[in-house]
Structures are given as C-alpha cells and as structure tokens.
Amino acid sequence: MKVALAHDFLIRWGGAEKVLFDLHKIFPEAPIFTLFYDKKFVDEHFPNIKIRSSYLQRRYAFLRGLTWIFTRIYTDIHRILLPWMPIAVESFDFSDYDLVISSSSGFMKGIIVPIKTKHICYLHTPTRWALQDTKQKRNFKDETNTKLTPKEIGVNLRNYQRKSASESFLKRAYTHFYRIWDFEAAQRPDILIANSRYTAQRIRKYYKRRADVVYPGVDIHTKLTRNKTRNNTKNISIDQHQPSKYFIVVSRLSSYKHVDWAIEAFKNLPYNLVIVGEGPTRKNSKFKIQNSKLRNKIFFRDFIRDKNKLMDLIKGSVALIHLAEEDFGIAIVEALKLGKPAIVYNKGGARELIKEGISGEFFTNKQDLSDIIKKVAENIGKYKPAVIKKSVEGFSSARFKKEIQEIWLNG
User: Fold this and answer.
1) Which fold has domain 226-391?
2) How far is CA 389 from CA 248, 283, 354, 400, in A?
3) Which of 38, 266, 271, 366 has a 20 to 30 Å separation from 98 between CA atoms?
C-alpha cells in the first residue's frame, strides 16, 4: 500500500507539526505534501524525508527573502499567500497513492484524491481565523465587556485598531468566500479525526460532520537532574533578592495566546515568571514589562530547541500557566507528565486534561488569574507529582499509533 502524508505548511514547530512527526513514524516511507516549507526548518525537524511542495514554494521563498532584506522579520509572511492556497491545495496529484493522511488546521483537508484513494484527515481545528476569530478581533474588550483605554490596549492592539477602521472590503469578501470553500473542503475526507472532544464538537458545529477523537501523543524523553534545573534557573537570570519561586508560560507569542494577562497578574505577586516563546507580540510584551518596572521578576526566553532544557525549566517551576483557549494543549500534558500542576484557562480542549484541585486549577478571566496563581503557590503541597503523572499516562505516542492504525484498518 502506498501512503502519502499532507500538511498545511512547514515553517515552524508547534503541536500540529508534532502530530505530523508522529504520523511519519507510523509511515516512515511516506512523502510529505505541503503548500510550502522553510528548508532550514525541514532540515532540522524532518531530515531525509521526501517533501513535495506546491507552486507556492517559489512565491513563499521570494516573499521571505524580501522581508528578510527590508525588515529582518518574516514570521507571518505566508499570510500574503492566503488567496492562492485553496487553488494550490487542489493542484496536488495523489493518483499513485492508496491512502493519504492529511494533518490540517486550514487547507490540506481540501485535497482532492481519486476514488480508489482513502483520505483520512487529522483536523487540529476548524479554521479559526475564518470561523471564530473575526468577531473577537472587531472589538478588543476585557472580560467585563468594558472597552479598553489606549494605555491598556498596548502597542499592537492600537496598531490593529488603526487598521481595522479601514479594513478592506476585499479582505471581508475573501473571508466570506473562503468559508464557502472551507465547508466544502471539510466534506472531502473519508474520515475526520479530532485532537479532542472540544474540537470534535466544533467540527460538528461548523462542518456538520462526525469526527473520531485521537489525542496527540506526548512523551517526555529526558533524565531530569537537580543540577540541570539549577543551571537553567541561573540562565534566566532570576535575581537572588527576589523570591525563588517562578511560574512558567510556554507559548507562541500571539495576541490570542493572552500572555499579557500573565504579565498583568504578576504585577502584584511576589513570584517570578518565565515566558518561553517567540511570535509577533513579543516586542509589545517586552514593552509592557519595561514600562511597568517588572524586569526583575518577568524573564523572556527564546524558543528552546533543546527539549531536555525546556523540560528541566518546567520541572524547576511552581506550575505551568496556560492562557489561551486551545483545541488541545501539548505543553500542558508535558508539564503534567513532569508532575507539575497547571493553571489553565477554563475553555477549550484543555478542560479535558486537568482534574481541578488534583492536577491543577482553572481560571475564568484575567481578573481572577492572580488569585488562582497565589492559591496554587500557597497550597503547592496538595498537588502530588505521582498523582499528576498518573492522570496523563494515556497520552503517549504508542497509544496514538495504535488508535490511528485502528481507524485506518477499520474505517
């Protein structure tokens, strides 16, 4: 049987790419079809794998080069190619394959395969920017439904408000027509798989289809030592005059990740915060810290490529803080597998991962976040590492492989 894998694009590491990597381990001979890719990223994370890109590859490389020359930043340059992505997805030829497994958050669910070819789509989420995020972006309001002041809005949000006042008709029209294509594309796979019950519910709501639930595999392959943890703690330059306790946020730094909520919460807390990640709101977050004189208690680390170092850093924390409404939350499971409690936003797939009062706590809005952080810090003894680890024993790559194979064989 000839098998192919498909993924939206390969430009940075995240939960979807971890799932693709696990799928590749199940089907090591399968090539990966993708709209476009970053060669450096692929060489690092998917070496010696056949990558087959669409005609957008040249356009992506050209745009990235231009952006690098003029601004030295090309994190989200791929968004310029959005209008061409549906057409590019439909241009792939899968006539030589018996099975195609796509990993999609937006476009690859829409590939067209021959009648003889089975298409299984692991759908990480219905397309958020087209189906959910548009309404949230039109009004930046806090949880009490009060419009934010200019100071509270911050640099990036002020920029957005200036842009949104003249948001183009073409952009809104494209989103409208994309939704039509998106719904049709979601009907094409023979089988849909969701990464959580929450995602399955959203698939049913937006696409009117049933999806099997297969949680991503999360494995911690590391030996943790006190020396390593201590060294990492020094590396983040925690001031010896500050309290030794620190919490950690591991996240891409985007507006919907709400990292600014954590920054606000720690203004009046006697603990340190370590933020690990990169993204478009990083400069804005650093700006807030400098202006609120939090430089001695909030510390930024770039994306940590060495998994052992990241796990050691989490292991040395009081707890992980997860601030966004996510479809699943691999970072949460990693922390739990290390025996650390997690403080999690009470929405989304993360609710399926935490046992309140046992493996962590939920917060409902940014107003009560500081109280929950304080509660966890003052009662840390009640969160038993052995019990926390046991609660997530089922989230393994072995179980992921077994369930994917069962769907493939029986579907």
Assistant:
1) Rossmann fold (3.40.50)
2) 18, 35, 11, 18
3) 38
**Residue 7 phi, psi (nearest 5):** -145, 145
What's the CATH number for 3-150+169-217+397-410?
3.40.50
> For residue 80, how many other CB atoms are within 10 A of its CB?
12
Contacts 24+ apart (CB under 8 A), 389-392: 389/336, 389/337, 389/338, 389/339, 391/336, 391/355, 391/358, 391/359, 392/218, 392/333, 392/336, 392/337, 392/353, 392/359
What CA–CA distance (Å, rounded) separates 320 from 334?
Answer: 10
Let me know: does 301 contact 276? Beta carbons within 8 Å: yes
Burial bucket for residue 400 (CB in 10 Å: 0-12, 13-18, 19+): buried
What is the residue-wise DSSP string for 300-360?
A: EE-----HHHHHHHHHTSS-EEE-S-BSS-HHHHHHHHTT--EEEESSBGGGGT--BTTTE
Residues of the chain with CATH 3.40.50.2000: 226-391
Closest CA to 359 of 329, 338, 378: 338
**pLDDT score at 74:** 53
Compute the distance between CA of residue 280 and CA of residue 239 in angstroms, rounded to an integer: 27
What contacts 311, CB < 8 A, 6 or more positions away? Answer: 220, 222, 224, 334, 338
Residue 37: DSSP 8-state: B
Q: What is the mean pLDDT, run by run of 10 residues, along the chain of 411 residues?
A: 95 90 95 95 92 93 72 66 93 96 95 96 90 52 43 42 53 86 96 96 96 91 43 42 72 83 88 87 75 78 82 92 90 94 92 93 90 93 94 90 91 66
Amino acid identity at 49: I
Decide if 319 contacts 344 (C-beta within 8 A): no
Q: Which residues are paired to 250 by β-bridges?
A: 276
What phi, psi does 119 have (nearest 5°)? -115, 115
Q: How far apart are CA 14 and CA 278, in angstroms?
A: 12
